[in-house]
Structures are given as structure tokens and as C-alpha cells.
Design brief:
Blueprint lengths: L19 H13 L4 H8 L7 H9 L12 H11 L17 H17 L6 H32 L8 H10 L5 H10 L1 H27 L1 H8 L7 E4 L12 E4 L5 E5 L4 H16 L10 E3 L4 E4 L9 H20 L10 E4 L2 E4 L19 H10 L12 E2 L8 E2 L10 E2 L4 E5 L7 E5 L2 E2 L7 E2 L2 E2 L6 H17 L1 H8 L7 E3 L4 H10 L9 H8 L12 H12 L6 E3 L5 E3 L5 E4 L5 H10 L3 H19 L24 H15 L1 E2 L6 E2 L1 E6 L5 E6 L8 H14 L4 H23 L15 H14 L3 H19 L10 H15 L2 H16 L2 E3 L2 E3 L16 H15 L2 H15 L2 E2 L4 E2 L15 H13 L7 H15 L11 H9 L8 H18 L19 H13 L30
Antiparallel strand pairs: 1-2, 2-3, 3-5, 4-5, 6-7, 8-9, 10-13, 11-12, 14-15, 16-17, 18-19, 20-21, 22-23, 24-25, 26-27
Helix pairs in contact: 1-3, 4-5, 4-9, 5-6, 5-9, 6-9, 8-9, 12-14, 14-20, 21-22, 21-34, 22-23, 22-24, 22-34, 23-24, 23-25, 24-25, 24-26, 25-27, 26-27, 26-28, 28-29, 28-30, 30-31, 32-33
Length: 1052
């Protein structure tokens, strides 16, 4: 045996030398930890407190001694594998559909022999089927190394065959069965051999344990589940590998009946069935399904739940009512992690199939912070959303939010592409097989009900979910003592605690199977020390050491606890450490005792927001009919101002204030993604688009017209306070700047735009002074900007700086505007006889206002009206030339490179281009194509841009603001504008805000949400007195109509 398969603690100490190999080894390990010496040293202390040089010395030594020379289980399995006669071509276990099957079959054959020695004789089909599971497990460990070695032989021209497929077969059928080659292979990769033998040994132990338990419990199983004989099919490995490869299984019998085996206590399952029975006994209608179980304490059996369709709408309603009931139960007992694999939709019954993550334990004290955002995050983290059942999107990357996936208990309606890339095998069964980073498919789950096998809109059954939730919530609240007595059964059950995401552990494990870590066990052990990043001051070393130990043996770390105490347990239920501050049982009792009408209202709102956001957030969901040529009579006596006040009052009621009452936030559905159809629920940000700046902008202007402005003025002040604090943090902590945008709608310049307007309207000179104090911050984020567009980049900042200059006539704004324009020109791309800017995330070139060239050209023209540069005029003409090439005459609209969808909105398409051409014309750009563009864009906007949804970004309020700019030039627009305004007024009188706003979602923000509805309504009534938001106008009453040209050195 090559002793380099032995772990560091299994080796005898090695004499220290001054070998340069030791320094090289430490340098290599440092690279694995991002060249962070502090992290490396802390992490390796989980493995050993010996000096790093001593550990490295053991790793680089050609030979090492062992503390114990006795053979362990894995070495006995190695002896069996390589000393038992084996013929691949004669094996009944061979499988041509598995990669490298000849090597895998050698291990599977040894496992079969080991089972037969225990008198476990399986039928040939069952034996082949269960051992395929072992092979797949071993392939996951070995494939990286085998692919490398196959390619080495290919490059050395040692493989026989005329085609890549034939040369692969030569490797599989000849090299991998050759004892001499295998000896060489495993001498090079001794850690691989140990891992494969260990996994095989664990597999034999676990399967024999399952089989013996099956025989032992035969009579009980027959009585409980009405099964007979031995299973004809066993699906192994349902779930991740824990506790030395222990695995759940689904057993199928000859009559088609199935049962489920899990190698853990079913105490928690028993207690949960009692809880469901308690509810069923007290709540009529739509009873919750209880499961048949056999709890054997160390393991258990349960009935199999099939995924079945509903056949009537009534059954669907019953399903979602029951789901609401289960949601209330899970909320009451602090359950988490009920994602799509933990729920089965079985006809009209949602059934929870894994109950390990109820009574969730929190390591830290269960208290909210003091700021408004801290409190909002606390509310969400302790809300019904934390169960994992409600829809939520997972996003990857800081700014490119287009790649999303929903794995919630209500997600996974269809197979989804993963939002991140992972190593995938390409070129199966060829000698040029390779690994490439690519996306993979997340398969369709069994958690959603269907109607005759067709998916149905979940939002249509939102009322059923809320009804079911509310009924059980009130039941628990009204019978608190009885309910608390029932949950006493959970007190001493073991429940699972997930210290880190399973994906984190799995990623580390898979990377540790890289060939570089399979030559010497210490290399792999040091790499796996990356499991702990030591980012928290109170990192528990005992827990981290347990994680490392379990990863080294090839398992996903598995922790348990009991709701009644604070100890963290390992998978064998042995205590590791006093880990939690408060027992989850104590916290759950406190939570149930505080159930109230207010909490019910808040949780129902979170349910509503989550479902509307996930299933209603598409353009087509929100369309209304607008007859442009016939009046739409206003219903009722409400004026637009009254709708605006209703929107503001709704926001005021839902706001969350910090402990000192100075700052404010809202829990809202917030837009994500370049395509603007993905939403998440979170506290609003601070920006103009979704956040405090935009909400404060609306509140500030409403206070100018409202009869009782005090509340709106106060909320404006709270928004200013939050913005001021953020700007101070950006000034004081430069490391935060890299996370900030410069743009008008998602960045720092949007904060200043809000302060400009709020300071003017509220007559607060100190708020205007804050703008001057923040200019160094804006300058810093402009310098790092790569986005360039209006929404998040330098063009938006340039617009805001010009707004400030036009109002305040202070050269300091023009000076920074000049730098901003210069930054834009540095990032310009000359493309197809024109000029454009590449989106840094998608690598596409966009037309249009918010994200593309039209908006940047408009910003440059606004600056150049003052600066008067001939070279800038030429660049603006190049922008028009670029967009002209993307004009689609048949659609009278403009496309974008890399974006197939045609839009008619401010953000993309004709409406924004119409606004751009208006700004260019107003700022003195004399391009012969401007008038034609205006006519075409105007026609398309009127024909296709109205009635889609009610928002500023891509809806009616934005289109109306743009169209009003042309009403004097095109008088026929007056009727269209008036009819659209009337239709919107009628719509909001007939559709309360509880139904959601833009696209039916419950959003607080200015560009897509309730604040935008309010500001849009104000524009319907007081348009002439309000600034044009989409072109970032200064306060309307203070526009300087005749700015003098500002002459300085022309850097363009």
C-alpha cells in the first residue's frame, strides 16, 4: 500500500528538513486559500495544531510511517477487490451505459461477494440494480482522475482504435482491467484507491443493514403496508450521503406497492402526525393527510406518497387550502428548508416527506437590530417565508440578475436551467472526453399540483392558501394551551441543523476529488479545511472540526439537536458543543403565545406578496383595454389626488421605522434582472428605482398638494435620514464604494436627485448642502463605473448633474459633469459606422433610453447644450447612426444587439427612443432623421405602448409622461392622453391596492410600485407643476430657461 493515502493523524512525525519542497508546498496551499495566510493558518488548525511546516514536511516526504500498521476496514476491502479473481467480460454486472464501467464493476463484484458472505443473496435483476447505485457513487469520486489519465494516454498515442469511441473502449476494456496498469494508477493516486474502497465498504455495511432490518420487520411491514414477499426494486441513495454513507431507500414490490426506508429515528414524524390529527379533529373540511409509519427509533418505515394529478377544480382548491394549513403549522413550529424536494403533490393532498428541519435552532440571540432595515430583515427571517415553501428566486452574481432559479416548496413548475455553471462531462465514451463548466438542468419536481396533468396558475388559488393558513392560525391561537400540550411530543425528538448550505459542502467534496488532491491525503485534508472561513468571531471550532472529519470521509456533514436543549449533536447523536443560546422549543412556545390578529395580517401579506411576485410578474398579467378614441367616463367622484393619497396612506401604514423613529423602510417586492420580469421580496433599497429615494420623492411632492401633508413630510424626512446615513458610510468606508452604482435610478446620483427635489419642495437648504458634501462619493463611483447607461451608470449621473446645474447654477456640478462625459467617451465602442456602449454583464449593445445608446446620447446632448463641443455633436450623430441600423421598419421599432424581445417602453424600445429624440431636438441636435424617428416612435408608442401595465418604467404612467411632451405639437394626442388618464383613474377606483399594482405585484417603489402610481396620479392632476421624472428634470418651477454656454478647455 502507498502510505500517502494515510491522513496526517495516521502518520508518524517526519524529521524536519530545510527542503525547498516544503516552502513550495506551503505556497501551493496558500494559493488554495486566496493567498490569505491568516485564513490558511486558522483553517489548518482544524486539522492539527502542529506548525504548518511540519504538516507540509509530511506531505512532501517520499515515504511516511504509520502509527498503526493494522489493516482497517478499507484495506480489507482493497484486499478483497484485488485478490479475488475477476473477469470483466464474464461479469453479469457489466453495464455499457456507465463510463469506465470495467473498473467500477470490479468494486461492485467485491461488494456482491461481501453481501453473499452475509447470506444476502439477491435476484440477478435486483442485484444488478442496487449495485448500479454503488457504481454511480464511485464514478462521482473517480471520474476526474480517469478522464485525465485517458487523455494522457490519448496524447501519448498509447490507445488502439481508429475512432475516438474505439480508443475509449480500449482504455475501458484493456487498460482498466490490467492489474499492472491499475497498480500504476493507484500508486499515483493512493487517496483515490482509499476513497473507493472506503465507499464500497460503507455501501456494503449500509445495504446489509437495510436488508437485515427488512427481514427482521417483515411481519410488521406486511400488517402496516399490506405488502408480501421481497421487493423487486430498491431505489437507493434518495438524498445526500451522511453518516458513513447511510442512505434512504424506496422499495417496490411485485404488486406495485412501495414503502420508504430511512436510517434515522422517526420520532419527529410520529409527533407531526399527532399534530396533524389535532388539527383535523378541530377543523372541518379539507383534512390534512396523515402517514402510516413504523418507528424503530434508530430507523423507520413509512408509506410511499405518489405524485398524482387533480381531476377537478374543487380538488385543486382543496390542495391549496391544505397547503395553507400546513404553512400555518410549519410557521408555528419554526420550520425551515421545505424546498421543492420535500413536498409531494398527491392529488388534492400536499404531503411533507422530510420533517427533519422543524424547530429550527438559531445560534445567535433571537433579537432584531435597531435600524429600520435590521427590523425588516428580522421580520422576514422569522416570517412564514422562512419555511421555504413560498416562492423565492435565488440569484447569482452581484449585478447580472438574469440567472435565477426557484427551488421553493411551491417552485420548480418546470425543469429549470441552473443559474450557475458547474463541471459537466462532455464527449461521453470518447478518448477526448473532457470536463467543461456549463449550466445543467434542475429537473421538474413533484411538488406542484396539476389539473389533468396540466400546470395551473398558482395565483388563481391564492385565496385558498390564505384561507387555509388563516383558519389554522386562528385555531392555534384560540386553543393555545391544547396545541402547546400537543407539541410537547417534539421536545426530545432529534431534528436536523443545517450549519452551512448543502451546496457548499457538496462543492468542496467534488473539488476534493480533483487528481491534484488524490496523490497525497494531506493535500486533500488541507483543501477541505476551507470548509470554515472564520468570518464570525464566534466560530465554533468543535463543530468545524466535525465538518472537516465528515468531509474527509466523503460525507455531507450532518448535525442534530433536540428542541429542548442547546447542544449540537453529530449524526450519531453524540454531543459536540453547547451551540445555541436559546432552545428552539422555548422560542416556539413564546411565538405561539404571541399569535395575534396583527401577526396574522402580516403573515398573510407575506404570502400574498410572495405568490404575486412569483406567478404574476409578467407584462401580459396586467393588461387593460384602453379605447384611445372614445372617452372612458370617470367612475365615482375621486380625483387623481385622492388616489395618490390612498397610495401614500397605504405606504405609511406598511412602513417599518428604526427604534429611534428617524429612518424608515418597507418590505416590498423588488425587481431583479435586466429583463425586469423577476422579483424578490426584501426591504427596499435606498435608490430612486425601488427604494427610499423614489418613495421619498413621491411623498415630498404629495406633501405639496395634500390637505394634511404632515405624515408625508415626516416620511420624506425619514427617507432623507436613511440616504444621509448611507452617504456618510460611503464617505467613511471606502471599501463600500466598489458595491455602489453611479446611475440615476439604482445609484448614488439618484440619491442626490431625490435630495435636490425634496430639499426644494420642503425648503430644506441643509438637504441641498448634503448634495455638495456627497459629490466626492459620486465622483469616486463614476470613476469605477462600467455600466454607462441611465439606470445604473454614468449617463444617469450626467443627467442628474445637469439637473443640479440647471437649477442651482453652480459650476461645481458642471465640472463633475465634464468628468462624467469624459468617462462615457472612454468607454464608447465604435461599431458599424456608429457609436455604442457594451453592457458589461450581458456583453450586448442596447438601443433605448434606460439601458442603451439613446439615453447616453440624450445625456451627452444635455451636457453639450452648455459645453458646445463639435466633437461631442459628432459622437451624438454616431449614436443615431448605430441605432438607425437596428431600426425595424416593419415594426416601426428598434431592436438591440443580443436582445430578441421588442419592447415599447421607456426602458427598451420606441417610447424611450421617442423621449431621447425629444431631448436631442430640445438641446439643439440637428439630425435629418430626428423628425422621422419621432413620427415612427410616436405611432408605435400610441398603438402598442398603452394598457400593458401601470408603471413608469414600462407602463402607462411612463408613456403618458413622454406623450405629454408632444401634446402641443400633435393635438390629437390630447384625447388619447385624457382617455388613458380616465381609464387609469377608473382602474384604481375598481382595483384596490391589495390586488397589487404594476403587474399585480405588491411593490412600494417609484418606477414599478405604489409610489409610482401615486406620482403618476399627481401628474394626471398637476402635470405642469411637476418635474418629468424619466428625463430627470429639475424642480419644475425653477428650471433655468436660458443657460449660457460654459466655455473651458475642450478635452473632447
Amino acid at each position: 500500500m502507498n502510505e500517502k493515502s494515510a491522513g496526517y493523524h495516521e502518520r508518524l512525525p517526519v524529521a524536519q528538513t530545510q527542503s525547498p519542497l516544503v516552502n513550495d508546498k506551503i505556497k501551493y496551499w496558500r494559493s488554495l486559500f486566496g493567498d490569505d495566510d491568516k485564513w490558511l493558518n486558522k483553517a489548518v488548525s482544524l486539522l492539527s495544531h502542529d506548525p504548518l511546516s511540519s504538516i507540509a514536511q509530511s506531505s512532501v516526504s517520499q515515504s511516511v510511517g504509520l502509527k498503526d500498521s493494522r489493516r482497517g476496514p478499507w484495506q480489507k476491502m482493497q484486499k478483497r477487490i484485488f485478490e479475488t479473481p475477476f473477469s470483466y467480460k464474464d461479469s453479469a454486472l457489466q453495464d455499457s451505459e456507465l463510463l469506465f464501467d470495467s473498473l467500477l464493476t470490479r468494486f461492485a463484484s467485491a461488494a456482491q461477494d461481501a453481501l453473499e458472505e452475509q447470506n444476502i443473496i439477491l435476484s440477478p435483476p435486483l442485484c444488478r440494480q442496487v449495485l448500479t447505485h454503488l457504481k454511480q457513487t464511485l464514478l462521482q469520486i473517480a471520474h476526474q482522475t480517469l478522464i485525465l489519465e485517458l487523455n494522457i494516454l490519448r496524447l501519448e498515442d498509447q490507445l488502439k482504435g481508429d475512432t475516438p469511441e474505439m480508443r475509449y473502449l480500449d482504455f475501458n476494456d484493456n487498460f482498466l482491467v490490467n492489474p499492472g496498469y491499475l497498480r500504476t494508477l493507484f500508486n499515483e493516486y493512493p487517496v483515490l484507491l482509499r476513497l473507493l474502497c472506503t465507499k464500497t465498504d460503507y455501501w456494503v455495511q449500509n445495504f446489509s443493514e437495510l436488508w437485515k432490518r427488512l427481514r427482521q420487520d417483515r411481519e410488521q411491514l406486511q400488517a402496516a403496508f399490506h405488502i408480501a414477499g421481497d421487493p423487486v426494486h430498491i431505489e437507493l441513495g434518495v438524498g445526500d450521503s451522511h453518516n458513513k454513507g447511510k442512505m434512504a431507500a424506496i422499495l417496490t414490490y411485485s404488486d406495485g406497492k412501495k414503502i420508504v426506508y430511512k436510517p434515522r429515528s422517526h420520532d419527529v414524524d410520529d409527533a407531526f402526525q399527532l399534530l396533524l390529527s389535532w388539527i383535523n379533529d378541530r377543523n372541518s373540511g379539507s383534512p390534512l393527510k396523515t402517514l402510516r409509519l413504523i418507528n424503530k427509533k434508530r430507523y423507520g418505515w413509512s408509506e410511499f406518497i405518489p405524485h398524482e394529478t387533480c381531476h377537478t377544480k374543487k380538488e385543486l382548491e382543496g390542495y391549496y387550502t391544505r397547503l395553507g394549513k400546513l404553512l400555518a403549522v410549519l410557521y408555528s413550529i419554526d420550520a425551515v428548508d421545505f424546498h421543492h424536494e420535500n413536498i409531494i403533490a398527491s392529488g388534492e393532498h400536499p404531503v411533507l416527506i422530510d420533517l427533519e428541519s422543524i424547530f429550527h435552532q438559531y445560534k445567535k440571540r433571537d433579537e432584531p437590530g435597531s435600524t429600520a432595515v435590521d427590523k425588516a430583515n428580522y421580520i422576514l427571517s422569522r416570517s412564514v417565508r422562512s419555511t421555504g415553501i413560498l416562492p423565492f428566486n435565488l440569484y447569482f452574481g452581484r449585478k447580472n440578475r438574469d440567472k435565477v432559479v426557484d427551488i421553493s416548496g411551491m417552485g420548480g413548475q418546470e425543469a429549470q436551467e441552473s443559474p450557475f455553471q458547474a463541471l459537466q462531462i462532455k464527449g461521453f465514451f470518447r478518448d477526448d472526453i473532457r470536463l467543461e463548466h456549463d449550466r445543467f438542468e434542475i429537473g421538474e419536481a413533484k411538488n406542484l399540483p396539476t389539473l389533468d396533468h396540466q400546470h395551473v396558475p398558482v395565483a388563481d388559488y391564492l385565496h385558498c392558501i390564505i384561507e387555509g393558513f388563516s383558519a389554522v392560525y386562528r385555531l392555534i391561537s384560540d386553543h393555545g394551551e391544547s396545541y402547546l400540550a400537543t407539541i410537547e411530543h417534539f421536545k426530545n425528538c432529534t431534528v436536523r441543523n443545517i450549519l452551512k448550505p448543502t451546496a457548499h459542502y457538496a462543492s468542496l467534496l467534488n473539488k476534493s476529488y480533483h487528481p491534484d488532491f488524490l496523490r497525497d491525503a494531506v493535500d486533500r485534508e488541507v483543501f477541505l479545511c476551507r470548509v470554515e472561513k472564520f468570518e464570525d468571531a464566534d466560530t465554533d471550532i468543535a463543530a468545524a472540526k466535525t465538518e472537516l472529519k465528515e468531509l474527509i470521509r466523503g460525507d455531507i456533514p450532518y448535525f442534530l439537536s433536540k428542541p429542548s436543549d442547546t447542544y449540537l449533536l453529530n449524526g450519531e447523536e453524540e454531543p459536540i458543543a453547547a451551540y445555541f443560546e436559546t432552545p428552539s422549543f422555548t422560542r416556539v412556545i413564546k411565538k405561539i403565545s404571541s399569535f395575534s390578529d396583527q401577526d396574522l395580517k402580516e403573515q398573510a401579506n407575506v404570502i400574498r406578496m410572495s405568490i404575486l411576485a412569483a406567478y404574476n410578474a409578467r407584462h401580459e398579467k396586467d393588461a387593460i383595454d384602453i379605447d384611445q378614441n372614445h372617452p372612458s367616463p370617470r367612475s365615482g367622484a375621486l380625483q387623481p389626488l385622492a388616489i395618490a393619497e390612498k397610495a401614500a396612506d397605504d405606504l405609511a401604514e406598511k412602513r417599518i421605522e428604526g427604534n429611534d423613529g428617524k429612518d424608515v423602510t418597507w418590505i416590498s417586492t423588488v425587481i431583479e434582472g435586466v429583463e425586469e420580469i423577476s422579483w424578490t421580496i426584501s426591504p427596499v433599497s435606498l435608490d430612486l428605482y425601488n427604494g427610499n429615494a423614489g418613495i421619498g420623492f413621491f411623498m415630498s411632492y404629495l406633501s405639496r398638494f395634500a390637505k394634511r401633508p404632515e405624515t408625508y413630510s415626516h416620511i420624506t424626512e425619514q427617507c432623507v435620514f436613511a440616504i444621509q446615513r448611507a452617504l456618510n458610510e460611503l464617505k467613511e468606508k471606502e471599501e463600500f464604494l466598489k458595491y455602489a452604482d453611479s446611475g440615476a435610478f439604482t445609484g448614488v446620483s439618484g440619491y442626490l436627485y431625490f435630495l435636490q427635489h425634496a430639499g426644494t419642495v420642503q425648503k430644506k437648504n441643509e438637504w441641498i448642502e448634503l448634495i455638495h458634501e456627497a459629490l466626492p462619493v459620486l465622483e469616486a463611483v463614476i470613476e469605477q463605473d462600467e455600466n454607462c447607461d441611465i439606470i445604473s451608470g454614468s449617463a444617469g449621473a450626467l443627467m442628474v448633474l445637469m439637473s443640479l446645474y440647471e437649477q442651482l447654477d453652480d459650476p461645481v456640478f458642471l465640472k463633475l459633469a465634464e468628468k462624467c462625459a469624459g468617462h462615457l467617451l472612454q468607454h464608447k465602442t465604435n461599431i458599424e459606422n456608429g457609436a455604442a456602449w457594451k453592457d458589461p454583464h450581458t456583453q450586448n449593445y442596447y438601443t433605448g433610453f434606460a439601458h442603451g445608446t439613446s439615453g447616453i446620447a440624450a445625456a451627452l446632448s444635455r451636457f453639450n447644450k452648455v459645453f458646445d463641443s463639435q466633437s461631442l455633436k459628432k459622437i451624438i450623430s454616431q449614436c443615431l447612426a448605430f441605432e438607425k441600423q437596428l431600426y425595424i421598419a416593419s415594426e416601426k421599432n428598434w431592436g438591440s444587439k443580443g436582445r430578441e424581445q421588442l419592447s415599447v417602453a421607456w426602458c427598451h424600445g420606441a417610447a424611450g427612443i421617442l423621449l431621447s429624440r425629444s431631448i436631442l431636438r430640445e438641446n439643439g441636435v440637428n439630425d435629418p432623421g430626428l423628425h422621422t424617428d419621432i413620427l415612427n416612435a410616436l405611432e408605435t408608442t400610441v398603438k402598442h405602448g398603452l394598457g400593458n401595465n401601470r408603471s413608469f418604467c414600462h407602463g402607462d404612467f411612463g408613456q403618458l409622461e413622454i406623450l405629454r411632451g408632444f401634446r402641443e405639437e400633435f393635438s390629437e394626442l390630447n384625447t388619447i392622453i385624457q382617455n388613458t388618464e380616465d381609464r387609469l383613474l377608473t382602474y384604481f377606483q375598481e382595483n384596490p391596492f391589495s390586488k397589487g399594482v404594476s403587474r399585480g405585484v405588491d411593490s412600494a417603489g417609484l418606477m414599478l410600485g405604489l409610489s409610482g402610481v401615486g406620482y403618476g396620479m399627481l401628474q394626471c392632476q398637476y402635470g405642469e407643476e411637476l418635474p418629468e421624472l424619466l428625463q430627470l428634470s429639475p424642480p419644475q418651477a425653477l428650471i433655468k430657461k436660458n443657460s449660457k454656454a460654459f466655455k473651458r478647455e475642450n478635452v473632447f
